[in-house]
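Worked example 3 (structure in, sequence out).
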């Protein structure tokens, strides 16, 4: 998918069906975009310190867990060719443990591991480099 508008719409659609209407853990596509932009700013600074990581695939996820029993997360795998987005729900402590301790070291295994441990109701949204650059208002996410 190389159109920023279609990517945003598809991400929003997937997020909208994660939780019941009115849940305090609801995540919007706009929030995901802002979280990704903020993360990439920090990641750029990290790459300045560790230039060997430039061009490498990496991932991050964000979670809302105001209601602990139905925590929602939005995850992105960053590749030189574009972004992979997926989202799901689970126990907030299990999600935090995964992110801090149990995560796979190979970023290509991240989606499969999240899907195995948590409720990920749909597959990924793949956004090509051109669409991702338009959606984020910047190019480059792997250094």
């Amino acid at each position: 998918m190389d159109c920023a508008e279609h990517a945003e719409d598809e991400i929003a659609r997937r997020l909208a069906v994660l939780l019941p209407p009115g849940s305090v853990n609801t995540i919007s596509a706009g929030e995901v975009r802002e979280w990704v932009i903020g993360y990439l700013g920090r990641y750029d600074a990290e790459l300045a310190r560790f230039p060997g990581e430039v061009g490498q695939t990496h991932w991050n996820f964000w979670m809302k867990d105001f209601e602990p029993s139905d925590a929602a997360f939005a995850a992105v795998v960053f590749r030189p060719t574009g972004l992979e987005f997926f989202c799901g729900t689970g126990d907030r402590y299990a999600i935090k443990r995964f992110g801090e301790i149990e995560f796979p070291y190979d970023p290509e295994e991240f989606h499969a591991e999240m899907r195995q441990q948590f409720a990920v109701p749909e597959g990924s949204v793949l956004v090509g480099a051109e669409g991702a650059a338009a959606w984020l208002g910047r190019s480059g996410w792997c250094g």
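Notes: Strands lie at 58-64, 71-79, 82-90, 125-128. The mean pLDDT is 91.
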